[in-house]
Fold this protein.
Amino acid sequence: MMLRRGEYHSFSGGDARYLYLVPSAAVVELDDVSHAVLERLATGDRTANELAESLGARWSGDEVRSSIDELLGVRAIHSVVAPPVAPPSVKSKRSIPLQTLVLNVTSKCNLSCGYCYEYGEDRIVESGTKPRFMDEATAKQSVDFMFAEAGDSPSVNLTFFGGETLLNFKMLKSALAYAKQRGAELGKQVNASLTTNATLLREEIVDWFIENDVGVTVSIDGAREQQDKFRVFSNGMGSYDIILPRIKDLLARHRRKPVGARVTLTGQNLDVVSIYRHLFEEIGFWEVGFAPVTTSWQREYAIEDLGFQQLLAGFQTLAAEYLSEAIAGRRHGFSNVRDTLEEIHKGMSKSHPCGAGFGLLGVATDGDVALCHRFAGSDSHKLGSVFSGVDHAAQATFLETHHIDNKTDCSTCWARPLCAGGCYHEAHTRYGTTTQPNLHYCEWIRAWTNTCLEVYGTLATKRPDFLTHLS
């Protein structure tokens, strides 16, 4: 029986060798014998006897054959005559329980951020007739819709989004009060969160966060020069000096839930290390997460090749710091690496890149239901409404069409279990279709995933107890 290498990605961490097994998304540590077997197979197919003979000077035949059996068991190698059958894709034929509902409570904002998809040329809303603010009746119907779609799930996540979410604060209060009332009646826990630019924070609002256990994420791009590059008012005035005292008050008072910072990176703002230092170490956010701007490549703020290299270098610096702090038993707030480590530890193998349309839905100001908050308001990506319900047939068709198995560009990529082709909105903005993988991110994603695997492997060797907290 001829043997051949399976599909995996090899990496090192903590002086140990590992494999990331693509079909199962498992991580396994290699001993010297298994490593030697795989190196021999890298030059061509061989039988077990040929492998045992070629490695006989270092290990006995029984040791080599035992290693071969272990590698076959985890599908790191397979028979050339009868390769293992790929596991069947899980394609849902029924309604998917809703886990998170994102209410776009307003499409209006008091800032005029230069890269914002809400107001920029990349905005995908086809209709200009939708209200700028969600009314109370639509919000309550959205809550009823959320519970109906959640099925038997014991908890639901209700997230408020915008525009600037706090412009519709009165409605937020009534919507969450109603959600908690209905949740108590139905025996379901309601977890509430929102995103804000922090310009409208005041004592009354922070009190409401505390009283209602609302998770808060602040959109902020760094220190004054970084923040005021794009995040400005309509008159061009920067927002940093307005939001800083408000954020400090929020962090000092709201300790019920961690407050995080969400940074949009552009071609002109890629110094992630200095941004992290300012937001985590100086201001005191619990965690800091970074996301490249979503835009077409023609925009002057788009990130291009050299920018991705700079971005990767910064991420790798912070990942190394995260590793050092974790080994020392201290907390580091770089959420991008933590999130990926959690996915690796859970053995996550994604059929779709995110929860959009798959456990997560977005609601526009008029009650139309979309794939996610970024598509809320787009007639082309509508899946129903909170008044008439979800078109589950359209939802199922979307999920089947966008399954990773249908993305031929991804079929040979070892990072596909964690990427699954990338953000639908990014693909729509870059390529004009949600079905297109985000090929401009491929090298970056593979390099970053490899970095996270190396961090994971080192922690598995030096601080395995740390990984138990990722489950």
